[in-house]
Each structure stands twice: as structure tokens, then as C-alpha cells.
Amino acid sequence: MSAGKFASAYVDRVLDPGYKNWIRLFEAYASKVHKAHLCMLSEQGIVAGDSLKRGIEETDRKFSEPGFLPEKIPQGMEDLYFLYETELGRQVGEENAAWLHTARSRNDMDGTVFRLALADRMEHFIDRAEALCRGLLERCKAGEGELTILFTHGQPANPSTTAHYLSAILLDLLEDCHGLAKALEKVDKSTMGACAITGTGFPIDRERVARLLGMDGLVVNSYQAIASSHWLTAPAQALKALMLDLGRFAADLLHKTSCEVGLYGFPDDLVQISSIMPQKRNPVIIEHLRIRAGQAMGLCAGIEDLLRNVPYQDVNEGSDAPIAQFLEAFDYAEAALDLAAATFAGMVADQARAKEIALSFGVTTTELADTIVREFGIGFRAAHGISAAFAKSGGRKESLRKAFLEKCGRELPWADEKIDAVLDPWHFVQVRTTLGGPSGTGMEAVYAEARRNLEFLKDILDSRTARLREAEAELAGAWANLA
Amino acid sequence: MSAGKFASAYVDRVLDPGYKNWIRLFEAYASKVHKAHLCMLSEQGIVAGDSLKRGIEETDRKFSEPGFLPEKIPQGMEDLYFLYETELGRQVGEENAAWLHTARSRNDMDGTVFRLALADRMEHFIDRAEALCRGLLERCKAGEGELTILFTHGQPANPSTTAHYLSAILLDLLEDCHGLAKALEKVDKSTMGACAITGTGFPIDRERVARLLGMDGLVVNSYQAIASSHWLTAPAQALKALMLDLGRFAADLLHKTSCEVGLYGFPDDLVQISSIMPQKRNPVIIEHLRIRAGQAMGLCAGIEDLLRNVPYQDVNEGSDAPIAQFLEAFDYAEAALDLAAATFAGMVADQARAKEIALSFGVTTTELADTIVREFGIGFRAAHGISAAFAKSGGRKESLRKAFLEKCGRELPWADEKIDAVLDPWHFVQVRTTLGGPSGTGMEAVYAEARRNLEFLKDILDSRTARLREAEAELAGAWANLA
Amino acid sequence: MSAGKFASAYVDRVLDPGYKNWIRLFEAYASKVHKAHLCMLSEQGIVAGDSLKRGIEETDRKFSEPGFLPEKIPQGMEDLYFLYETELGRQVGEENAAWLHTARSRNDMDGTVFRLALADRMEHFIDRAEALCRGLLERCKAGEGELTILFTHGQPANPSTTAHYLSAILLDLLEDCHGLAKALEKVDKSTMGACAITGTGFPIDRERVARLLGMDGLVVNSYQAIASSHWLTAPAQALKALMLDLGRFAADLLHKTSCEVGLYGFPDDLVQISSIMPQKRNPVIIEHLRIRAGQAMGLCAGIEDLLRNVPYQDVNEGSDAPIAQFLEAFDYAEAALDLAAATFAGMVADQARAKEIALSFGVTTTELADTIVREFGIGFRAAHGISAAFAKSGGRKESLRKAFLEKCGRELPWADEKIDAVLDPWHFVQVRTTLGGPSGTGMEAVYAEARRNLEFLKDILDSRTARLREAEAELAGAWANLA
Amino acid sequence: MSAGKFASAYVDRVLDPGYKNWIRLFEAYASKVHKAHLCMLSEQGIVAGDSLKRGIEETDRKFSEPGFLPEKIPQGMEDLYFLYETELGRQVGEENAAWLHTARSRNDMDGTVFRLALADRMEHFIDRAEALCRGLLERCKAGEGELTILFTHGQPANPSTTAHYLSAILLDLLEDCHGLAKALEKVDKSTMGACAITGTGFPIDRERVARLLGMDGLVVNSYQAIASSHWLTAPAQALKALMLDLGRFAADLLHKTSCEVGLYGFPDDLVQISSIMPQKRNPVIIEHLRIRAGQAMGLCAGIEDLLRNVPYQDVNEGSDAPIAQFLEAFDYAEAALDLAAATFAGMVADQARAKEIALSFGVTTTELADTIVREFGIGFRAAHGISAAFAKSGGRKESLRKAFLEKCGRELPWADEKIDAVLDPWHFVQVRTTLGGPSGTGMEAVYAEARRNLEFLKDILDSRTARLREAEAELAGAWANLA
Hints:
4 copies of one chain form a homotetramer.
Chain A: H1 8-43, H2 50-64, H3 80-92, H4 94-98, H5 106-142, E1 147-152, E2 155-161, H6 162-187, H7 206-212, H8 222-227, H9 230-257, E3 264-265, H10 284-306, H11 320-346, E4 348-349, H12 351-360, H13 365-376, H14 380-392, H15 397-408, H16 416-423, H17 425-431, H18 440-481
Antiparallel strand pairs in A: 1-2, 3-4
Helix pairs in contact in A: 1-2, 1-5, 1-7, 2-3, 5-6, 5-11, 5-18, 6-9, 6-18, 9-10, 9-11, 10-11, 13-14, 14-15
């Protein structure tokens, strides 16, 4: 069992940190894997399960006793599993204990344990992300009547509503969530039975083990089961995609909440002050959202790049240290979700300011041009020219009338009130009934898509929950049947 | 139309390169967009299509005349589209020409043009990748009887077959191809009708335009249509995932083809020599595969990171320069596919060497341990100990017998021939009937999965082809109906 | 010479693109290397130089004849060098020609050729970057009297001057330029004489070749000369650092030039319009600066990551394809420099707007607090409290007087004019005589540092120019001495 | 002081983690900064130091009492500094305490605190890296007589020595260490006196504070002092460069230690076994070295990319959360150093195997060709052809003689012993007296360079130590002079 004394650098930098990672993050899953594996071995008539059943229960109990496991890995031990087998041997005899390791290897066992741990972390995260999206949908609905200004290239472009604005990022976030759910499928596959890399000569049932563990199938090719990195890169990419969107949203909102723009403000409980500048109110929550998203992205990219040019083999890139570091990415990402949720909930639209920007920067002149096109049947380019002249004049109606006369050869037959009505930002919003536009009609398709995506996401999460519940019952039954 | 004189740095570094990119990569798609947009405008009764129809046909003809377009962008022009509208104006009158731009903006137009170009490039690429996978499946079948050695942590671990080895990477590559097909769906969505960002007051039909363009639906929210980066990041991530796998495979195969290992060789037409070392035969094709894959990955990561902290707005990160650079990633990636195809097709298994490695490094002792477990009912750990003693002795049978006697208290009742048979690498392979293992039985599930995935991929590609063909006919019909 | 027929994928994806890269980018340097190598061989008495001298001159002449070199690499040729040796053989006899390759390999030759090409590209780039910095220094001086507002966390914080603002980024850019110059040193080292990896048994003089090539020394260890990647990663990191700063500056300036903030504007020749929104004036030059910088960064990161986990050996990551791609990074980066130069030169400060922001957002209240501390000897926290009350009141003087009375127990003995003077943003700037602060006194150290760094940079560039000129003369002399 | 109640997400995700980071990593440096700042304020006659001196001492004492600081940040507090000022106020009166914050801001204070913490971490790391290099130099010397084989493109190329091989990576590592030392200079600069961003109206002495803190000067421009990211990106790039080299070395050594190659082995205390494959001896230490290096690289890239497109302003990317994450990079990197040190020390050359590879793969045929060139004055290409024929024949001497006769028209006048001597790998090494080659003569320049670089590095570290010691004394003196 023991491999002799290891060099101290190796113990301090590899074995001991690994031992601690296993205790902290993975041991609970390992125990589940032991049980599912033993049930299958027994059902297949390969191993008699009775004494091992008692031994596993006893060893698990010991392992969970505070102080039972030494603080530091004992010399000569490679990992926690060696301690497990040693204790199991103490309970049921060494010879007997060793039967548990029939038709498996640390390769397939570790793979499945890491996948189980990662899948649970991901499910929890997707759950939170789904809640964020639900909250954001509510915020959209509450913002249907909130006038705002949307920008292109950093310049005010069109009036719109908070609902229209936020539902855009909502749909992107939902797509990201689906990406995560898709990645979870790749994680949630059993590698058990692949053994070292080629399976075994024992008549095992790989599918049974996967089912008892509540996993979503298995990695079919036994070499691929050990060598593939999709279970790491797929979630890393999916999480990065979500964080990238949050980071972009943060950059956009920072501009909208800067005091010169002032389209949205925050309540005091989300604002920091300056220790030296008495006037400052910094909505740094958005900055911290950007940073947490960025920190998560860094770790995700780190996982991807860690695998660059690493042989397509069993390699330790898929072992405890990188997995533990990857799990941290979800902590940063969850912090980003929480800050995003507080941001969405806390942001308060300043509609007077929206109107002011609309008028002073002439953002409704597009509609002026369009209305001229529609009402007088002249081409868009000419109408654009008339409106541009008006915009250039700083919104003077005489300039508009003069430009119209020049281009069309007749007087503009509109009263001043009509001009004002055409230029009203709220009018701008309401005529935009285009599918996906900001008016009530336009938003119908947006809400429908958001709801469809939310349902789809919920179904995925629910079906995993159901599968896990079922599997737990099945494992408990199989376990009871041992002996 | 003209925006005055532009600064020379701006012309040289932005406008002119953009103009050239448009001529080279995007203009053909823009013309299609003009047509679909005009058909819809006309069908909706917004614009009378007859003279514009003629104008577009004439302008397209002119644009395709060699020498018609100036080498360098003329001063005062922002982009190729301004030249298009100018020429159209010359054909049908400026007033008339401007009608074409009703209810659209360069924002939604550019978005759709870039997406169409990228989608076509991707489809072509996926097609090639699918062909690679089909070829690889054939190579697997041809390699069913080829003994090889698979490694873990760089050390020989288990005997297997070329079929088992290559089908592992095949299944991973197929998963990557599905990822690309999934990403293609996100690219293949119309943004038309989003106009600048909020749609329009004209009664347009966004779905009609999407259908005429043969796209797979539209980006619903009009702000999202312009601001989202999923159509760039999703394919970038998907392509990177595929390249990462090829890079890992290259690293693994480099080891297997190194002359000391020698499990696979290459024919002369894939091997370079040294200008100074007469004995060298460098299978650098694998290195070049790694490099092309790496260059593609770099460009993919570049696209993702380009969007870091960029405001969730209409930004020029989604314009011609980054798209053109991203398209290069597919060129590098396609080179990697070609080199991979040549590698798969060219690699020749040296089975004598496989057998030699199997015996000299004792890679079948796992099976020895397992057989002892199965035949004598002793625990795995004890059997492992007996086999380890045998391995340590350099494969001396007396050592095996002695260790068995010590552990089991009785003589090993096997003739020497039986021991040899148990240790035979091909026997090792054949008893591994585990689902997904290397034996014929084990491989059944692997082939089934590969075929299922290939069919699924083919269906996706076929359905896009069919949709495009249908759309082309529909657009031709609608175009004929104008006037 | 010929290595037989190569597989078509290999020719199309590796050999032919490589051949074209060599013709386009590297051949001129190869010729210089041939000459320096031959001079040294002859001087050391290893090879008689006369006929080879003539052969090289003739071959170079042929190579530069249009149409002499075939469009596509001929079958059986690995690279352009094989064609060179073939032609040389035609000129002076094959036997004779082969003498040129004595005591060298394509490994050390290629390394030196690539380094020479990269070093020249870098020098040209640093030259441009230095000019940008000189121009920026001029812009700082012109902006000494321009009031502006600087931000923290996206909120207005302190008044300052354009000079103070721009000289901050100037000093960072100069540091980046030094980083590039430092990296150039690592590139500019000869690998000649390392041969394949271990040098040679011929009595060569490596230092002589380095000197004749005008390089800054040599890579001492012959294995390192071939295996090291510092000559690629060091410039990649240095260039990325510069681009990162430009990108951050762009993000800052985009905010300052947004129409709601309006601290800086641009002349019409740097502004684009909208095809649909008549009022828009988009200073997208800053966006394109961000994008070019980002594209360059992507390529730099690509080079670094290309080398991840690549064996510390002679590998093709250091060959024509990655080098050619890396050279593109300098093109993008140079575009960024040009756009930055146009931006610096074009940005026009709106001082009325600066004053308005200063007053409406109370950015000078820090100075109010400080003056209260200085004049009345009360602690900073109390003074901060008084100023905060004033800021909160929207700048009403009675609130200030009331808060002062409450905190200090006496009346504020200042006339209203005194209060206004204390709050004047220009006063704020002028009292900040801190070393490195915005006042004239504060800026002295800033200018001194900028000038020192510019001189230092110029010295580096000048000394390379001088070294190259000297080497050219020395090589010409040695060449003439042959025969 | 208090800013009211903060939202719980903000407390949990930003303020409280920040508070804990400060206690764990930064508070000790903050105290030093308080002291240096107070000494300067007092020396400049701005603030009377006596009571504050007592207050700071008392507050520091309290802060270091276990249990004094609450576990979680109290509501209404932004950070640990607010608690500090509160406690200081309790000690010396609020009014009095506030004087300490005269002429500074959290901006310049935090910047300097973070830089001090990072600089100390870096110095410690460079110290370890320097020790690694010294050890490696010893390993080189011990390996002068160890024959080994070096590879190009994964194939055996030339015989050499362990000394020559390892000294190549040593010189690269030393260059990396210098890069780190260079980056440390940028970190080790004071930002004190920059206050928020523009300095102050108080007559402070920025250089005095920098000197009392033992820093290597100051960031001159006060805006740059707060906005620059060089102090983060420079060390991130430098650390990444070092890790990249270790990763490449690991990839190379993995090949050399694979059992088929077997040029180096490891003692048992660095080798892991397999739980299922009795024959396995995995030198996974090299894999873990690659992984730790990769994890560090990921964090370094994360820091760089975190700053992408972040406004050139005071941003929280330079605050506790990213700094704490960046510090982790040094932990991973130090693990990589330790594993590298154990690897260098533990690797045992198998010289019999080196000789065997040399002969069976004909790696000395280059020398055969060279000797033919030298002794018979024929061109390199012809000699190369003769040697290639010999190599192709599998080293049969008759083939060599036959080829010589064909090419040269005469018999090869060498006895068989002479041929063997020419082909002897150790002879190959010894004749390579080229500067930087593997022979004793060749290695002289290598050792000289290594020693020069080690000295230079040591000087840098020593001078920092001396400066810090001096500064400590100066601060102690200044502190004593208060009152």
C-alpha cells in the first residue's frame, strides 16, 4: 500500500495539498462512488458485498469523526484513498478490503469523483443564475414605463425603455445559462469502468454504476473517459461567456450611471464615499461586478490554457489542484451574480434626465426623418438631410421648415405642436412596434422568448434534481440489498 | 452622403482597410441583403420596388466590373456602402435610391452581412471537419487489428488497438463539431429590422427578411441584435475547443512516433530531413498540426478577449477588421484539419514494436493480477502485490511462483504456457469486453456513438443546405415579383 | 538535396506557405547571413571564399529577378534555402556550393534570419512609438493652460490640466517603449555557430559573425540558441504592455469625449456620422484605437500561448508561420500608434465645460476642506464634514457657514468672494505644487522625467543605428577581402 | 466616518472579503505607511506628531490583540481603515486622529500598501528563484561528465552533456529572474503624496516618505501614481515568462524520462505508483511542475486581461481582491520552483542508455560528415550524402566505404577503429569547442555568463535588503524624534 518515503518538496507541494483538497472537496463523493461500485460488483456476482458494506459504513463514520484524519498526509501515503483502503483493511481485513478495488482504478474513480463535485457546483450556480434571470425579468416588467436613452459608440442614439434595455442582456444571459446547462451534461457523465484506460476483463456493468450515481450517462470510449478534457473546458468556456456578458453590461451601465449622464442612480446602500473628496458618491458596485466577472474569466481561461499541448492521455491536469482552482472560478462568478442582482434591483431610472438628454442631443431626429418619409413620401436620404439640418441648428423649428422647403419645394404643413409630438421621446418609443422593439407590441416577442428560455432552463434543472433523487433511492435500495 | 474630408491617419488605418475588407469579403452578402430588404419593403407596401430593382441589378453589375471600384477609398466616403448608394443614385436618382435605406441602418445591415459571411465560412469548415471525422472512422476500422500501447502520465500503461485509441479522439472531435454546429445557429440569425437599435416605425416584417436570407430565425430584441457578441464568442470558443483537442492529440502522437517509442511511423512523403544531420527523419507534420491549431486558438482567444469590458452597445468590435481577422482563424484551423487528415491517413502502426514494449515494460501485468483475482478468488491488493513482484523481477516466472506461494500459501497451478497466454498483449485486449473497451464487443458501443454523432452532424449540415436552397428560390421569386 | 515527393496536404499547408513567407519576409536577411558566414569561414581558413563569393552574388541577383523564383514551391523542395543551394550549385558547382553550409545548420541560420527580420521591424516600430511620445510631450506643453477634470471610479474627482493628464499616460508609454527596447536586445542576438544545437568541430568565430551582422552579441549556450523562446515572448509581452495602456487610455478618453461629459471634442475630420441618426457625431477613432490595440494584443498573447508546454527543444513554433503572424501584430500596433497620434493631436479641450463640471459636481470641495484645515488648524475629518455638508446642499454658502459654526463653535470669517476663490478650479490646480501635481511647479519633475526617458530611448535607437552602419561597412570590407 | 448601512450583497461580496484580505495581507504595511506619513507631516511642520504617535502605537497594539478586530466587518464600515481611524479617534480624540489623514487619500495610501506587500512577496520569490539557479549551476557542474542526447523536433539529434543541456535552461531562467527584478523596481515605487490623484496644497515631501518606506523612488506624476497598471502587469508578465520556461522544460524532460527513452531516471522518493498497474513508476513530479507553472501562468494572464479596456483612472482592479489573487500566483509559482529544484537535484543520467541511443539512431553521423569534410577537403553536401548512406544502412562500415568511393573516387583511408572513434559520442562532444558548445572549452563562456548573471541578480537583491535596513533605521529615528 505504501510507496516508501517521498521527497519533502513532493509531499509539501503535491501530496499534502492534494490530501487536503480531497478532504475538503471530494471525499463525500468518493464514498458515494465506493457504494455504487460495490453494489454493481455484488449484483454482477464479482464480489460478495456483505462485509465490505459494513467496512465502508464504518470507515465513512471514522472519516467523518473530527480529528480522525491526520492534519498532514502521513509519509508514504500518496493520497487520501490510500488511507481509506488502510482503514477499510483495519475494519474487514486487508485481503477483503482489496476486493473493493476490483475492476476499477484511481483513474476512473477520480474522474467520476471530480465530475460529481463539479456537476453539483455547477448545478448550484446555474440555479442562482436562473434566479438572477427571473429577477431581471421582473425588473424588466417594472421598467416598461421607464424612459431611457440607449447609446451606440458611446453617444446617445435612441430613446427606449428600461424594459427593452434590460431584456436584451436578459436574453443574452439566458443563452449563457443554456450554455452552462449544456456543459453540465458533459460533466455529468460517469467514467467508472474505464479503469486505468481500457476497462477490465471482469463482467462489470458501467451503465448500472452511472445510474446509481445519478449521472447523465457515461463516457463511452474507455480511453476517452480518462483522456478527454471536455468536462473541464466546456464549463470553463460556458462560464467565461456568461462573465464576459456581465462585464460588458457593467461597462455600459457605468457610463449610464456616471454623474454627467445620470440615466440611472443607486440608493445609498450601494454607494461608497471618498475619504478625501467630500462630494463623491461612487457606485463602485458596478466596478466590483466587472472585477469579479473578470477574476472568474481569468480562472476559466486559465483552465483552458492549462491544457494547451498537454498529451491526450491521462494527465494530472484533470486532478485535484486544477479542479480546486476551477471551483474558485464559480465562487467569483457567484459573487458577480450577486452583485449583478443587487445592481439590477437597485438601479433607479431618472426619467427627467432621459427626456433632457433626448431633447438636448436630438436623439429623436431619426423619427422626425422617418415621419417625413412616411407622411410626404420622399426618400430617406432627403428626409435625413432635413432632419440633420434641424439637429445642427440645435433644434430650431425655423431651420427645419427652411430645410424642408429647400429639399421638397414646399412648406412643411405641420404646426409646431405636431413637430413637438413627433420629436417626443415617448412617442418615439411607442411607434416602434417592430418585433423586438421597445413598444408594448414590440416587447411581446421578447417576453415570450425570455419565458420560453426560462422554462427550458428550469426543466433542465428539475430533471437533474429528479434524476438525482431517483438515483439516491435506487442506491439506497441496492445498498440495503447487499448481504 | 459625404462626410467631408477625413484625417489621413483615419483613412489609412480605418476607412481604407475597411473598404478593402468589404470588397474582398462582404459585398456579395450586402447585395443579397439589399434584395431581401427591398422585397420585404415592397411586399409590405412601404416602398415601390420597380426602379430600385433595376438600379440594384445595374449597380451590382457595375460593382463586379473589374476596375470599376477605385483601389483606394475616395476621400469623404466612410465605407463601400456609401459608394453603393452613390452609384444607385446615379442609376435611379438620388431621391429614389435613398428609399432603399428605409427602415434599416448600417447597424442591422452590417450585422447581418457579417453573420452571413461568417456562417458560410463556418459551414464550409464544419463540412471539412465532418469529412475528417468520417475518414477517421474509416481509419479506426482499418486499425481494429492493430495492436498498440496506450500511455498514462507518459508511461506505457495498457495494450490496446489503433481503433480504440483513435476512436477516443474521434468521439471528442465529433463533440467539438457539434459545438461548432451549435455556434453556427447563433451566428445564423438575422438582425435586419433592428435598424440602429430600436427598430422602426415602419410596418416591416423582420421574419420575412430572415427567411429570404435563408437564416435560422432572428435576434429578437432589437437592442440585443446590435449589442450582443454571442455570434462572435460562441464560434470562437467552439473552434478553440476543437483546436485544443487536435493540439493535445498532436502532443500525444509526437511521443508515440518518436524513434525511441516507435509505435507509429510515417511514409516518406510526410517526413522532413535535416540539412546537417544525415540520420534525421523528422515527422514534423505533427508539429505543424500543433502549430496551426495553436495559431487558430490564438486568434479565437483574441476575439474573445477583444470584447473584454467593451460596453454592451453597438461597438466596432463587431465590424470588418475583427471579423476579417476572425475569418483567418478558420484558415489556420482548416490547415490543421488537413494536416490531421494526412496524419491519420499516413500513420502506420508498428505492431512488433507494440508487442516489444508490452513485454519489456510489463504492461499486461494488470491482467495477470486480474486473472489471479478471478481464478483464485483472492483480493485485488494481494494479486497486485504478486504481479508487482513479477514485474520487478523483470518478468521471471520463478519470482511469480514464489510471490504467489508466499501470499496464497499454495503453489501457482499454472503451466508456463498459461502464464505466457495470460500476459499476451492481444489476450489483454480481447478480454476487455467492457462497454467502450478495446475488444470487438467493447467497441460496438463506440462505433454506435460515432455513427449517431456523424448522422446528427450531417443532418444539421443538410438541413442548412436545404434551407438555403429553399430561401434562394423564394428570394428569386420575390425578386421577380417586384414591379 | 531533394527529399522526394511530399504529400499534397503537407505541401499546401506547410511547405508552400513557408516558401512564400520566406520570399516575402526573410530572403534578404538570409543573403546577409550567407555573406557574414562565408567571410568568417574564409577568415578562419575553413573555406576558400572566392568562387562562393561570385556564386552568392550571382544567385542573389537571380533571386531578385522578377519571375525567376517559381510561384509555388517545386515538388521535392523543403524550403527556399534548398532552391538557393541548388542555384548556387548551378553557379559554382554542387560540390563547391556545399562548402557554404560548413559549420552551420538551418537551425542556427533560420534563428538568426528570423531575429534580424523581427529586430528591424521592432526598431521601426519603436521609432514610431518614440515619435508618438515626442508629439505627446508637445501636446502636454500646449495643454498646460487647459483646465480639465479627472475622474476616479468613473466620477468627477479633481480639476487638473490637459498637460497633467496626458503626461501621466506619456510616462507610462515611455516605460512601455523602454520595455520594447529591452526586448529588442534579446531579439538582436546571433545564433550562428550553434549549428543544429551543439556547435561544430570546425574552428569558427561566432562573435565575428554576430559583429558582421550588426547584432548585439550572441546567445551563448548553443542549445539555448536554438531552444529558447525569449526572442519571441519578450517582444510579445512588451508590445502587449504598450497596447494595454493605449486600450485603457482609449476607454478613459471615450468617457471624456462622450457628449454628456464633453471635456474634449474632435474636429470633423476625425468624426463619423450615422446613416440613420442625423444628430450623431461618433468619435469612433478612439474605438478603432481600442480595437487595433486589442487586435495586436490578441496576436501577442497568441505567440506567448503558442509556446505553452512546447518541449524546450528546436521546435517549429520558432519558424516562418508564427513569425509571420507575429509581424502582423506590429502592423496592428502601428495602426494603433497612428490613431493615438491623431487622437492626441486632434483632441480639443472644452474649458468652459470643465469649469461647469467642476462647479456642478463640487469637485473642488477637497480643496475647501484642505484650506479650512490649513487656515483654522482643525482636523481633516471635521473639515471634510463641513465641506461635505456644503457639497450636499448643492453649494449653498449658508450651509457651509452653518456647518462651520456647528463643528468649530465660531463663525466662518470668510467673505463670499473668498469662498468662491477657494472653490475656483483653477485655484485648485495652482496650489497643487506637490511634486508630480498639476501646477507648474508640480509638473517640473514630470517633464524632467519625460525628457530623461525620451533621451534614453533615443540613445538606444541611435546606438543600434550606429552599430548597424558600422557592421555594414565591416561586412562590405570583409566581403571585398574575399578572394 | 460611517457611510450608513450597506446592502447585504455588497457587504458579503465586496466589503467583508476586502476587510479580511486587509487583516490577512496588508495591515502590517498600512501601519508602516501611517508612521512614515506622520513623520513627514511633522517634519514639514504640517501636523504635530506627539499625540498621534502615541495613538498609532496604541492602535497598532490593539489591532494585533487576538479577538480585538471583529470577525466580520461591522455594518456601515467601508474597510479596515475606517476601523483604524475610529480606534485612533478613541485613543487621541476624533479631531486629533483626523490630522493623520492630512494630505493623503485612500488612493495613494492603498497603492503604496499594495505595492509594499507585492514587493516583499516578489523579493522572497526572487530569492528562491536565485537559489534554484545556484543549485542548478551546481547540478550543471556535476553533470559535466554525463553524456546525454539532445533532441530536435522530438527526434534524437546530437550527443551532449547534462551540463550543456541544463545550463541552457539555466541561462534562460536567469534572464527570467532579471525580468522579475526589473519588474520589482516598478512595483517598489511610492505613490504617497499623490493623494486622490492631483496631490495636495500642503507642503509635503513625497521623496521623504518614499525613503522612510525603503522604496525605490516614487511614481512621479500624481495621476499616473493612481492610474498606472504597470506595477501589476510588469510582474505578471515577468512571472509568466519564468513559468513558461519551466513548463517547456518539463515537456522536454518528460520525454527524456519516459521509459522508452530513459535518458534520465528518478529515485523512488520522487516516483508514484499505480493502484491498478503493478509495473508503473510514474515520475509525475514533472507533470506537477508543469501544472503548478501552468496554474501560476493562468493567474498572471488573468491579471493582465483583467485590465483590458479598463479606463485609465483610479479603478478597483488595483485593489485588494485582484492583488490577493495575484499573490496566489506566487504561491503556485513557488511550488513550481520547489518541484523544479527537486527535479534538477533528483534526475539521474543513464549514460549507457545515452550511448545506446547515440549509436542506434546514428546521432553522431553529423560528426562523421564534418570529419570527412575536414580531412578530405570535400564539400559538406557530398560528405552529408556519404554519411546519410551509412546511416541508412544501419551503420554498416562497408556501406560507408562504398559511398565514399562513389562520391570521392577513392578508397576511404580509415581503419575501422578510426571510424568507431569518429562516431564515438563522447568524441562528438569533445571536439565541439565552439563558444557555447558542450566541450569543456565551449562551456567556459556559458559558466562565465551564468556567474555574471547570478552576481548581478544577487547585487540587486542585496541592494534592496540594504536599502530596506537603512530605511528601517531612518524611520525608527524619525519616529523617535516625534514629540
